[in-house]
Amino acid sequence: MKDYCPADAAGQVSRVYRRMALIAAAGELATEFGVVPWPSGEATAAAAYCASTWLDRRGGTGSSEATRCVESVLSQIERYGSSRFDEWTEAPMSTKEMVVDKAITRFGWRRLVNNRWEYFATKDGWKQLHIGFEADFATKTLIREGILKVGNDGKSSRSMDASKNCSVFDVLVILLS
Question: pLDDT tens digit string along 7-26?
Fold first, then answer.
């Protein structure tokens, strides 16, 4: 079964394959001792098939918590993108940038850059976006998935001046197509 487990498998997946290896070994021993009328290798092939089918239904070899974290953050943005993120745009007749305030419960700001939304979440907004997941885990997961932008200093949050006339705030930049 070791040969069947994907090389990039997360710990959860590896553990399932190890358990399936025990099942395969028990089946092969049962075959060898004549307890079952199967040909040699049949139990291993059946266990490998079960593990493969489970993996297909699971949706991949990665951590299920990481997948759920990404799905949770992205669904929050999809659900509340225009109502919880104020639009950050250029002021008319000016080169200054401005924030168009309208959110009652603000998670942060958003702006369209090259047909791609960038979301700037405040510290409190970030807490709401990753609710149910620890901040460090959510931050590292979204950076690894290319959703959370890291600054030139390697940090996930940075100080931004939204309108050149308002106070500075720390944000996380989330990129969506």
Answer: 989 999 999 999 999 999 99
CA distances (Å), origin 13, targets 24, 47, 87, 119: 16, 14, 41, 33
Q: Is residue 142 part of a domain?
A: yes
Instruction: Quote the pTM value.
Output: 0.67
- Note the pLDDT tens digit of each residue in 113-161: 888 888 888 888 888 989 999 989 999 998 888 888 887 888 887 776 5
| 5 domain-assigned | no
Whether residue 148 contacts residue 173, with contact meaning beta carbons closer than 8 Å, is answered with yes
Give Cα 56 distance to the centre of its chain.
18
Q: Which of 51, 52, 31 is nearest to 41 (CA)?
A: 31
Angle between helices 64-84 and 135-144 (to 10 degrees): 90
Q: How many domains does the chain have?
A: 2
Tokens of 76: 């929050």
Residue 1 included in any domain? no
DSSP state of 93: T
Q: Is residue 171 part of a domain?
A: yes
Could you list the beta-strand ranges (E) of the chain: 85-90, 97-100, 108-113, 116-121, 148-149, 157-161, 168-176
